[in-house]
Amino acid sequence: MNSKPKILIIYTGGTIGMIENPETKGLQPFDFTHLIDNVPKIKMLDYEIGNIQFEPPIDSANMSPQHWCNIAKAIEDNIDVYDGFVVLHGTDTMAYTASALSFMLENLQKPVIITGSQLPIGEVRTDGEENLITALQIAAATDINGEPMVQEVAILFENHLWRGNRSSKMSANNFDAFKSHNYPALAKIGLDIEFNEDALFRTNTKRPLQVHYNMDTNVLFVEIFPGISDSTLRHMLSTPGVKGIVLKTYGAGNAPSNDVFTHTIAEAVERGIVIVNVTQCVNGAVDSSLYDTGSTLSRSGVISGHDLTSEAAITKLMHLFGMGLPASSVKKYMEYSICGEATI
Ligand code: ASP
Questions:
Q1: What distance lies between CA 124 and its chain's CA centroid?
Q2: Which residues contact 319 (CB under 8 A, 6 or more apart)?
Q3: Containing H/E element for 120?
Q4: 166-179: per-residue pLDDT in tens?
Q5: Average pLDDT of the chain to the nearest whole number
Q6: Predicted model pTM
Q7: Best of 12, 18, 19, 59 to mutate for ligand 1, by most ligand atoms within 8 A of CB?
Q8: DSSP class per residue in 121-156
Q9: How far is the CA of 297 from the centre of ligand 1 (A)?
Q10: Distance from the CA of 75 to the center of ligand 1, in angstroms?
Q11: pLDDT by residue (tens digit) across 103-151?
């Protein structure tokens, strides 16, 4: 006899569970009971649902690596008890959390579905109810062998399921707020949930979940723009303690090729800083052989981030340095896809 699917909801906060503060009129996170009371349809699913709530629930603008560890710990503690996990999270930093968790949860073989909403669950036109119900159904979905259909960290929003470490928040207003520009949807949500089985990630190991809690935050984004001054660039690259930099460049990975710029970058690489080149474009990849302005960077020792999202690039650096790896190994793994985050 099949038992009911067991799903753990980890409620971190975000708009989905917010209510209006009567004094300031601003939205602030509220508790889980309020959230679930607004979704009576959950009972129709006939699942066993457990829950863990962040105390207090937070706006995801306040998310930090310590919070990622709390989510990872909740999953680790319950990995054998539940069939799947639904993380309710604010949309603002959802793609960072999804990327970070994908690196932290090594050998994950169960679904971790992150969702939230643009309108609070208590609002008449909320998208939260549908997102929560669909996320639960995806977390409970199995294939013909009874194995979890999704065995990775994914973001469910409106009509699509996206790989977590390939996703970015695209809209502050639309219900269809997330997209993965360099990887197909893992599932399309319509009348049915249509999984794209070829796109789903599978580990080639049966080893148990191993959680990597250390995230080294000595990392930085440096986004170039026409007119960026030499002194600004030098200052950023000389930030005390910095070990890894995600350099956000133009197009296929191009940056100014003048001597001062090139020298400043090369000098930072010589000091042992790992600099990863990602494009400012939402779609496409770094190809440093295409233009002189790109190959100058790679000759200076900057490594290619290929088609990594910024969110995946920065959290991957945090993870690799957090593992205590030397710069040479960090560089090697940055050019290797650990859990489907890049097309290499
Ligand atoms: N500021 C909110 C958050 O990220 C926005 C949202 O949830 O959509 O927590």
A1: 29
A2: 100, 103, 104, 212, 215
A3: none
A4: 999 999 999 989 99
A5: 94
A6: 0.96
A7: 59
A8: TTSTT-SHHHHHHHHHHHHH-B-TTS-BS--SEEEE
A9: 36
A10: 22
A11: 999 999 999 999 999 999 888 999 999 999 999 999 999 999 999 999 9
